[in-house]
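Hi R.,

Here's the chain you asked about this morning:
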Amino acid sequence: MSFSTVMQQLMSGMISTISIFLLTLLFSMPLGLAVAFGRMAKFKPLQWLMKLYISVMRGTPLMLQLLVVYFGPYYVFGISLSGYSVFAATIIGFSVNYAAYFAEIYRSGIESIPAGQYEAAKVLGYSKVQTFFKIIFPQMVKRVLPPVTNEVITLVKDTSLSFVLAYAEMFTIAKQISARETSVMPLFVAGIFYYIFNLVVAMIMGQLEKRLSYYK
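And the predicted structure, written out as tokens:
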């Protein structure tokens, strides 16, 4: 089968893969910031809860977490969720997983800011919210961008794990076509897509790093 034919058959899977990628970032990045705040909170029970959440999310396979998110409500709690789609479970599973990784990256970035900057902001009359968003946050973004880039690139490849819920993203469709046509061409095309996708992501993140660099 020709390259163009495979591309046409994989198009819907490519759209699904991109959708998982974009929606996961949309939800996991702000959720990770909230978890990071909880992780650094002075209220110990909240701090311990966030530590446990991060530990579980980082210490168990993403594939297992996807299965728990989709089947857990029924088999664990006996709750039947009408309209609970495989796609929704996929996005939730990816988002809560990546939020834990982003939370630790954000925390390390925030804690790397010298304490003197907080004190100076207080002297200047800044509130805690103003101090964070006007002084701390811009510096944190610059410092955490490289590790965030690594996680984002990993996410591109991890989207293929949604096959465990039988969600028809690109890699799943590529395997189906490959088995039906007894050809490795679909898998080869899928590999090219992942490589180009990661290349584009790396270029975009690289441009962001340059824009945020203090030195030209």
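The chain has one domain: 3-212.

Let me know if you need anything else.
M.
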